[in-house]
Amino acid sequence: MTITFIGHGYVGLVTACVFANFGNTVWVVGHTARKIQKLKNGDPIIYEPGLKELLEKNIKAKRINFTLDIKEAVSKSEIIFITVGTPPKKNGEADLSTVLNVAKNIGKSLKTGFSIVSCKSTVPVGTNKKIEEAINRNKSKSSKVAVASCPEFLREGTALQDTLSPDRIVIGSESKIAIDKILELHQPIGGKRIITDLASAELIKYASNAMLACKVSYANLISFYCEKTMANVETVLDAVGIDNRIGRVFLYPGVGYGGSCLPKDVKALVNIGKKLEIDTKMLDGIEEVNKQAAKYFLQKIIKNASGKNIAIWGLSFKPNTDDIRFAPSIYIIQELLKKGFKITVYDPEAMDNIKTVFGNSLNYANNPYEAVKDASSLCILTEWDEFKQISMNKVKKYMKNYIIFDGRNIYSPTKMKDLGFKYFGIGRNI
Length: 430
Ligand code: UGA
Fold this sequence. Notes:
Layout: E1 2-6, H1 10-21, E2 25-29, H2 33-40, H3 51-60, E3 64-67, H4 70-74, E4 79-82, H5 97-109, E5 113-119, H6 127-138, E6 143-149, H7 159-164, E7 168-173, H8 176-185, E8 192-196, H9 198-229, H10 233-241, H11 262-275, H12 281-304, E9 309-313, H13 328-338, E10 342-346, H14 351-358, E11 363-364, H15 368-372, E12 377-380, H16 385-388, H17 392-398, E13 403-406, H18 413-418, E14 422-424
Parallel strand pairs: 1-2, 1-4, 2-3, 4-5, 5-6, 7-8, 9-10, 9-12, 10-11, 12-13, 13-14
Antiparallel strand pairs: 6-7
Helix pairs in contact: 1-3, 5-6, 9-11, 9-12, 11-12, 12-13
The protein binds uridine-5'-diphosphate-glucuronic acid (UGA).
């Protein structure tokens, strides 16, 4: 098949590479010449494990093409996927301006005959109808189009695995031809197929991300109880999660959820709820606990750090990505700077991105040991593997005072105490 992806972020580029690798001819459309040139040269722009290799392989095989010209791509394609961003507006509402503008341009570029337009971007209920209207207003009479909603569930950091073996593939459409064609495209991929209407497909994505955010906030809330009662959050959540009805996954407390999806989608669902006159207290609570998680951790640092020199390991919103969008590290660093802390940071992949936010206000280290030199305390904000088995004896040699604030519970409290560190984790009072 010949297919197009409009947008080359985590969803667009990863999915494009995977489908190209299955032998399809794939077009990827962008609007920044510099980025399109990088992609043509095999630079994925973002860091995602395995993506660079897959991109290079499919460029070599001439199965993936990059262009600034939407018409060049869309006019050749049987299926066009919209994979552009839907960032939150100030009021939390999803900003659909890019999605609808893309829909208009797709309409102007469709080939004669039948094409399918499928939206993978996370969009509020009713958006696919608007996409269809925008296309119909702009297309020529000789073009026919069917719209399908195919929400994406891949996670950053494991995007390739998630795309190749998803739990489910959701297709919402009123067109049987569109559903069959999209099913045919996904034939090499596993996962349960859920065929439904447009509105349900659109809502499934928000309902899933809000549930994930709910689990994280619930784990954080229980960690607050553990800290006040001297209970151990890991034992509590291990025991809670062993119940099949609950499950242990996504019940890990920390400094709060971040990224471009969970924070934005909970806000958007609140906004959708308000418009529909639904009481959104429960969703408001998820957001509130998330803010508290970062705030309580920050207070722990301010109260217990013995000096103002602090090293921070981990800046991305989760491991295996360079993405810092809505990362808890940003809020924590901003607040520590206000309190006069001198901060040295290290992250395996997110250093360039964090520099664009903080510039000269931080010191940037080349490795974890360099970051802790003369530091009074060490703070871990992302659970990169690189930090898990690091030599803490060596770390101690570089540090001035031996205090650890472990925002992701990656170390054993007793082991750290035995090594001579004063250790502060999340909900673990040992
Ligand atoms: C999330 C969803 O998991 C994907 O299914 C979805 O496709 C994606 O959003 C999207 O909408 O595009 P992602 O944002 O990549 O994926 O990251 P997650 O793995 O969901 O983690 C989100 C945040 O929750 C991270 O900051 C992570 O550190 C935090 N988290 C996660 C916890 O604090 N505790 C946990 O137990 C799990």
